[in-house]
Amino acid sequence: MNELILYSQIVLFIIRIIGFVVSIEFYHDLKKNEFIIFAISWLLFILSTLLAIVPIFWDNQTILQILLIINVLFTSLGVIFYIWGIYIYFISINPRLMLIFIGVFTIIAFILYIAINSLTAILFMVIGFNLVLVSTFIIPSLKINQFKNFMGKSIRWYYSVLFFVLLYIIISIYTSLSGFDYGLYESDDTIMILLYYVPTNFISIILIILLIHLEYGISTREVHDLKDKYSHDIGNILQVISTATEISNNQENFQKDILTEMKDLVQNKVKEASNLIKEIRDL
């Protein structure tokens, strides 16, 4: 393996570990299921990187072919899981159907490997995850207004990812047509290696930034909405208490049962205010 490829894989390994840790941390803090999907995606990417490095210690061609197949499979599944995690924010996706799709994709890849050869299986998987990548250009455009509102300022990072994804797709197609193997693991062409791995590294980095920026934007919007809700509710409570106080100060003008109702109303509103304060503290 070319040293430049090895260094690129090591950098990818480190970046992907960071992505995994960020996803786990978000899940621990927010308990959102999509972060489990992101964590699985990063874990698959980490394993695929390890499987790209391990072959330098092996000479058995059969084992190397199996490791390469699993490497491509984990990369493909990592792409599918990550895009699933992004789409789940603004599109209703049936988890069972997604898992069936992932299972069928995996089974077909291994059937092609066993029944035909490794090249056919790799070609199937590469085409598969590239089509999934292409969907990142198509599906958001179908719900562009909803997508833009959801993404907010994070959309600039999404477009940055799309730029490098497009660059990666173009380069991967070119390398395939030029006769290079998947990952360029056997290549010594420095320029092609740089063209292939620079976008890949940038995609991994920007995906982490996108995830952090997206969650920060969502949290900011949620805080803003909650501020409006709580300030509105507290304003209503204070208005009722103020009105009840004025009535109490003019007892001679009101019947006793009305004053009793006012006292009960004030007590209820005080309880509401107490519950709101508890909700605010729990945030």
Task: Break the fold down into its secondary structure elements and pairings.
Elements: H1 3-30, H2 34-53, H3 61-87, H4 95-115, H5 118-142, H6 144-151, H7 155-177, H8 190-249, H9 256-282
Helix pairs in contact: 1-2, 1-8, 2-3, 3-4, 3-5, 4-5, 5-7, 7-8, 8-9
Helix content: over 70%
Strand portion, in percent? under 5%
- What's the total number of strands? 0
Mean pLDDT: 79
Structure description:
By secondary structure, the chain is mainly alpha-helical. Helix content is 84%, strand content 0%. The mean pLDDT is 79.
Attribute tags:
283 residues; 84% helix
Briefly, what is this?
The chain has nine helices and no strands. The chain is mostly helical and 283 residues long. The longest helix has 60 residues, at 190-249.
